[in-house]
Amino acid sequence: MRPSDLTLVREIRAQLADGSAREAREQTGLSAADFAAALGVSRQAVSYWETGRCVPSAEHALAYARLLRQLGKKAA
Length: 76
Fold this sequence. Notes:
Blueprint (H helix, E strand, L loop, with lengths): L2 H16 L1 H8 L4 H8 L3 H9 L6 H18 L1
Helix pairs in contact: 1-5, 3-4
């Protein structure tokens, strides 16, 4: 994992903790279930991350952040 990836992981974990990642995901128009399917995880996993019940692995956090960026750019 590159240093820039580690920075992105830290950033998305902070955004998941403060709720801004969920808000950003909702702005893309995707439900937690749709987002989970795109990431290859369960809806419950996304829900747990977004409510702070657990912290995603570095790989899942990176995938979440990249998907959020990709969808954000399409919406812009």
